[in-house]
Specification:
single chain, about 550 residues, Immunoglobulin-like
């Protein structure tokens, strides 16, 4: 297993030369002892790497990776253009070694190497030549992603947490990667990304990517497996659990370690003992990690046990264990008026889809009744819109127009809140709420059409998503039929990029997989080409290979 290496530097005082044109190029590896790919290397050898210009010693200190990791840390000496790695012990016999600095070697002008600085050699009569290659997508600026490979000797553990990889490689600026000189066997891969060049352990602050294939097999010494793709995402590594319980006024607040699923939380099973009854519970719209609970029949000074089951975070992970909280109820009266804290669409919004449902969010649970007089949607000519009403949960409502709204029209929503109250009978702060929004101009729509050539006969539920480059509008997704021909209509003018992925579990969204327990992601590929959409125009023959 390779691990973090403490590097000892031996060098004289050095600095950049004066005069001459400004240096804008990074160091280039000129030669090495042993040479890259050399076999039957002496087990007593030192590693010497010579570069095209003087090296900043700290760049070597912070980026050296050796696979397999030696029992004792080597001594690294930097002297002008030369890096020498001295092993305190003999190298292992019949072993392929990889010495890597990624693209992190730099000169004194802070120019980094443009190539992946890497050296492979073997102490036996053959060198491992297996390789894995592919692409890493959605890399943030300033991030330095790597791809890690874990080799199994028996079976893979459920989690990679706390483990060091057997192999690492830096990802190129264009997102491509290649793990080479791999031994025969089965591997589990993970892309990991942070702003630092050295990533020692899997940390929740990093971004991760999980491949769609697991495990990945190197069947013979020179096997090459290509097309392994990763999409970087944030993952939760810490347990999903209840952190603390507090009482605010006559309500109990449950604070969890992660944001809750805003749709699934209403199915949670919440119970209170000692003859207390659950009156209502709702999501804190200002803190998605918090759930508020209001009970009936609670007695001041009495201790209660509250349990929560069937609760999901916003990534679909369920509480592993029943959450249990103790609280002693303190006599308190709610005297604070409820209020509307946000709406969708937001007031003043433009280019709102014509099939939009209007949502109203409150800061607490409410009692209300919607009628044609208490809630009104009208256009600028005061023509009213018929709608159906639904209370999604205790502190939000949804107004669903009976037919699509008119194109390029300003609408006004008015709510008469004078008869609405919270669960304690407090009236709203403002008796009248009003906001406006404008629908999209349907005449401004364009479209993209073409064909997707699906190379993998096992691909399932292939989806194509048009993602607006400016992120001002929502992405539009369509299913790709067996023929591969697709049409994405109702696109606002602008530039888009294309994502193609497989909805294997049929939930309508791309799933990134899991790190614990390890589960593969759904297949995904992103295409960097920008596709321009014009009003009242179909951009045709936009073809892709997936």
């Amino acid at each position: 297993m390779s691990g973090g290496l403490a590097v000892l530097l031996g060098c004289a005082a050095q600095g950049p030369p004066g005069g001459g044109p400004e240096d804008r190029t990074g160091p280039i590896l000129v030669s090495s002892i042993p040479e890259n790919g050399r076999v039957n290397v002496s087990r007593k050898t030192d590693i010497v790497m010579t570069f095209s210009e003087n090296i900043d010693p700290r760049s070597a200190e912070n980026s050296l990776e050796i696979t397999p990791a030696p029992p004792r840390l080597p001594v690294v000496k930097v002297n002008r253009k030369r890096i020498t790695i001295e092993y305190p012990d003999s190298l292992a016999e019949n072993t392929t070694y990889i010495i890597s600095f990624g693209r992190n070697i730099r000169d004194y002008q802070k120019n980094y190497s443009e190539q992946n600085i890497r050296l492979a050699f073997a102490t036996g009569d053959s060198i491992d030549e297996g390789s894995l290659s592919g692409q890493v997508f959605d890399i943030p600026q300033k991030h330095k992603p790597q791809v890690w490979a874990f080799r199994t000797t028996d079976v893979f553990p459920d989690s990679l947490l706390g483990l060091q990889p057997d192999y690492k490689t830096a990802v190129e600026p264009n997102g491509s990667f290649r793990l080479s000189n791999l031994a025969r066997g089965e591997y589990r891969l993970l892309a990991i990304s942070a702003e630092t060049a050295r990533i020692a352990l899997i940390d929740e602050n990093c971004l991760f990517g999980i491949p769609a294939r697991d495990p990945i097999r190197i069947a013979h010494r020179s096997a090459a497996v290509a097309g392994i793709n990763f999409r970087l995402s944030r993952f939760y590594l810490k347990p999903f659990k209840l952190l603390k319980t507090t009482q605010i006024e006559d309500k109990v607040t449950l604070l969890f370690s992660r944001p809750l699923d805003p749709e699934k939380y209403i199915a949670a099973d919440i119970r209170i003992n000692n003859d207390a009854l659950l009156q209502s519970f709702w999501l804190d719209r200002t803190d998605p990690k918090a759930l508020l609970v209001k009970a009936r029949g609670v007695v001041p000074g009495q201790q209660y046990t509250l349990t929560v089951d069937s609760l999901f975070d916003d990534r679909g992970n369920e509480l592993i264990d029943t959450a249990t909280a103790l609280f002693t109820y303190t006599a308190a009266e709610d005297t604070i008026a409820p209020k509307i804290i946000k709406t969708y669409p937001a007031g003043g919004s433009k280019n709102i889809p014509r099939d939009t449902h209007i949502r109203i969010f409150f800061d607490e649970a409410v009692r209300l009744e919607i009628t044609d007089s208490l809630a009104v949607i009208m256009d600028k000519d005061s023509n009213r819109v018929g709608f159906e009403y639904r209370q999604d949960d205790a502190n939000s409502i949804r107004l669903m127009p009976e037919s699509p709204l008119a194109s390029a029209t300003e609408y006004r929503l008015q709510l008469d809140c004078s008869d609405w109250t919270d669960l304690s009978g407090n009236c709203f702060e403002d008796s009248l709420f009003s906001m406006t929004f404008q629908t999209v101009d349907a005449n401004s729509f364009g479209s993209i059409s073409g064909k997707v050539e699906i190379a993998d006969s096992l691909a399932e539920r292939v989806m194509l998503t048009c993602v607006p480059v400016k992120e001002e509008w929502r992405p539009v997704t369509v299913a790709v039929p067996e023929s591969g021909a697709y049409l994405v209509a109702a696109l606002l003018p602008g530039d888009y990029r294309i994502e193609i992925w497989e909805d294997r579990n049929g939930n309508g969204r791309w799933d990134p997989g899991r790190i614990r327990p390890f589960q593969p992601a759904e297949p995904y590929r992103s295409y960097p080409e920008k596709i321009s959409v014009r009003a009242r125009w179909e951009t045709a023959e936009v073809n892709w290979r997936y």
